[in-house]
Amino acid sequence: MSWWRVSSPPVSGGVAMSSQRRARTVQPPPRPALLTRARVTPLLFILLLSLLAGWGVTLLLDPLNMPVRVVSVDGEIKYLDREGLEQTVAQAVSGNFFSVDLVRIRDKIERLPWVKSASVRRVWPDTLAVRVTEQLPLAYWGTDALVNHQGEVFKPQRLPRLPGLVTLAGEEAQAKRITKGYLSMRSLLETAGLALKRLRVDARHSWQIETEGGLLLDLGRRDVMPRLSRFVQLYPFLKDRADASLERVDLRYTNGFSVYWQAKTEQQSQMDSPSSGARIAGK
User: Fold this and answer.
1) Is there a single domain that holds both residue 164 and residue 239?
2) Of 114, 112, 118, 92, which is closest to residue 104 (Cα–Cα)?
3) CATH code, domain with 215
4) Angle at Cα 240 formed by Cα 234 and Cα 242, nearest 5°?
5) Is the pTM of this model over 0.85?
6) Helices (H), the chain
7) Which residues, at least 6 apart from 74, have a Cβ–Cβ distance to it below 8 Å?
8) Where is the domain boundary, 134, 157, 186?
9) CA distance 190 to 68
């Protein structure tokens, strides 16, 4: 029977070998060149698209490309000068079909005295469509202007002669209030068969009416509508005088009013007489 000793390798050597093997396992593999190319390619593509987009925008905004060639004007125009309107639009147009400033053009048009409002839009491929709403005059304002139904004062370069319009006068800052008062007073006077010719509000805010027949009504500063209503109720009793005609009524009193009469000539009295054929024919 034989025995032999098996000698084991040094422990330190085995540990060292194991450490070397573990170090080789943890070490990452080198990055391939393909991954780097995959990241660079999208960046180049985005850069190319940005350059193309910038070139396209520059091309579209160039005034020499796709210029505005036609301006069409729509809307019911009675007083507005079409030639002046077209000239205003032509001066306001800058840029091409895409870059033209529509808001700027609209603002330029709305500065024209006879224009109440305007709209501007693009119509492919080279047209600007302008729609204009013209001012509708309600009355003259003073001696050099007009006022619309909303109490907005506008001053045309040439004031036209418009038959049937009354004259309103006062501070321009009070135009809306005066216009509203005029509309109410006109309706009230019409119930008595009177037509308003002129309405004036002075610096003290005192109201005065002149009718088509030349009658003056002083209403004062307060309660102007109740005072005018009181006069309208009594007007049928005041006008029926054969020897005199109403000239002026002062309604500024709290509980009444004073009446000023204009004596008629003999010829006027005969025409106003109930037995006069002229008066019957005039009815």
Assistant:
1) yes
2) 92
3) 3.40.50.11690
4) 150
5) no
6) 11-26, 33-61, 82-92, 102-110, 175-190, 224-239, 266-271, 277-282
7) 129, 130, 131, 132
8) 134
9) 53
In whole angstroms, what is the distance from residue 115 CA to residue 154 CA?
A: 9
Torsions phi, psi for 55 (to 5 deg): -65, -40
Among residues 236, 273, 238, 230, which one has the least CA distance to residue 255? 230
Are 143 and 113 contained in the same domain?
A: no
| Most confident segment among 56-70, 155-169, 231-245 | 155-169
C-alpha pair distances (Å), 202 with each of 31, 70, 89, 188: 93, 50, 40, 22
Name the 3-class secondary structure at 134: strand
Q: Which residues lie closer than 8 Å to 141 by C-beta, 6 or more apart?
A: 147, 153, 167, 168, 169, 172, 175
> 209, 192 in Cβ contact below 8 A?
no
The answer to whether the CB of 85 falls within 8 A of the CB of 134 is no
Domain that holds residue 88: 70-134
From CA 158, how far away is CA 108, in angstroms rounded? 19
Is residue 93 in a domain?
yes
Residue 44 to residue 253: CA distance in whole angstroms: 90
Helical (H) or strand (E) element with 123 = strand 115-123
What's the confidence (pLDDT) of residue 37? 60
